[in-house]
Amino acid sequence: MHILKTKKTIKVLMLEIFFLSLIQGITEFLPISSSAHLLLASKYLNINNDNLTIDISLHLGSLLAVILFFKDEIISFISNKSLLVKILIGSVPTMIFGFLLIKFNLISYLRDINIIAITTIFFGILLYFADKSKEKKTIEKNFSFKDSIYIGLLQIISLIPGVSRSGITITAARFLKFDRIESAKISFLLSIPTLMAASSYTFFKIFEQKNLEITTLNFLAIILSFLISYLTLKIFVRLLKKFSLLFFVYYRILFGIFILISLK
After folding, report:
1. pTM, rounded to two decimals
2. Distance (Å, whole) CA 107 – CA 162
3. In the chain, what is the greatest distance between 2 CA atoms, to the nearest angstrom?
4. Secondary structure (DSSP) of 37-79
5. What's the CA gap between 120 and 136, in Å, rounded?
6. Is the CB of residue 61 less than 8 Å from the CB of residue 25?
7. Digit-coded pLDDT (tens) for 146-205
8. Are 167 and 125 spatial neighbours (Cβ–Cβ below 8 Å)?
9. CB-CB contact of 161 with 117 (8 Å)
């Protein structure tokens, strides 16, 4: 989607921004994989998200949403430096491996339709078994450095399209006996350094290309991504208080099967 050099009308571009914001805002925090959904959007809606300024705008919107949603926890980092260090430790492995995959152009080898479909299904099933955990550990009392390292290492797997960053971190936390709400909070908090790193890297690439032009569409992407991300966070947390993660398990399995059938 070449926003700055395109013959597409503003109305069409705004519609594409809306769909990209919708996908980013929802799939960033739900355990359903953004890569798989972006793949379908590219195929069926003819949306090609290869514009770096739009990409950074979408990630920035999600970053602002999660910061606002967890403003109290973030403020508490000042007095609870231990939690801050644990969150950073859990984020570092994914940042390093993600950088290496992009640096050496290895990520393209993982963007295979079959891989995305299989990982969508497999890690959906894994989420099912993780969610059967009955114990209820909390971040305040039980989140250790060992837990942070364990979740951080498993989060590396999310670099494979179809796995889902939020999905694997929630799965890992559930296996460690954290309840659903606490598992989601761990996943959301871990998303902050990850989103900051993604936004910073993309901004650096834009700076390298000497393309710093910011348009109305960029602001639209930030606002829409922020609103949809924040709404997703609120709804997801409320649902976790009443229901299990079984819906997302079913969704992932059906979605993975759909990918296998429709993209052959």
Report:
1. 0.89
2. 13
3. 56
4. HHHHHHHHS------HHHHHHHHHHHHHHHHHHTHHHHHHTTT
5. 27
6. yes
7. 999 999 999 999 999 899 999 999 999 999 999 999 999 999 999 999 888 877 776 676
8. no
9. no
